[in-house]
Amino acid sequence: MASLRPRILALDSLRVFLLEAGDDRLPLLILHGFASSALAWARIIEALGADRHVVAYDRPGFGLTVVAAPRWKGLDPYAPDAQVPIATELLEYLGIHRCVVLGHSMGGRLAYELAVAQPERVAGLILVAPAWERPSAPRLAKLLCQPIVASLARALLRLASPLAFWAGQRLAWASSPPRDIADGVVAVSIPGWEERLWRVTCATLATPKTPLPALPRPIPTVMILGERDRIVSNARSRALAPVWYVGGAPLQVVSFERSGHLPHLEESSRFIETVKTFLQEVEDGAAATR
User: Fold this and answer.
1) What is the C-alpha to C-alpha distance for residues 77 and 84, in angstroms, rounded to an integer?
2) Three-state SS at 254
3) Model confidence pLDDT, tens digit, residues 199-223
């Protein structure tokens, strides 16, 4: 296991919290899901960091990342269209010019969009229980942004958060979640978390729905799906598989039969070995359609 290295990076008005481990070889960038954080991936980062440089960071609105201004390079830092530029800026800051990108849940779509925008930078994709559809309701977002409605909603979030967190974990895990889980804990333990979560929600709903863009070139990909996932449907991921094949991209679809939405936590040993094997194949140029 490699030692974790927590850092705060200043990217203009953002103070980005990240966890790193390891060095050398082809790096791995980890993008967490909704209401999660880099800390939820600590064990995975430590394990994979024994072989290579691994980086995970908190996106604006989650975890320990701080947004110090309402705009970041002309963009709303909480909005979906800012996430690829932020990830790209972070990679540039770290001097990472080529890497494999792992995205979980909503981070899965972000990983895919990063590969579309920066195909020469992304050597491979690891999509874990990817959530392809982003909620979009611009009219509702406009209503929710009204000061009175927003104030009431944030108060409700504070009151309902313990029950919502418990219910969310029950849905996410195929089995009973352990008491010491990290996933989601940071999201509801930092002062002002409900304000940040509200901003992310409103910015996401305000974004018009867009079709999933096509990859500009074949990129080796592995999808890791929990067969008992009750958060997102695996049907969309499996429906996309023929598109990958037609495009010529090497694709693996790996089913974790005992997992729900969190295969990296529920079957962590198998998950780590699956990712290690894929990373080695990408490095060797041997990732093949299976």
Assistant:
1) 11
2) strand
3) 999 999 999 999 888 888 889 999 9
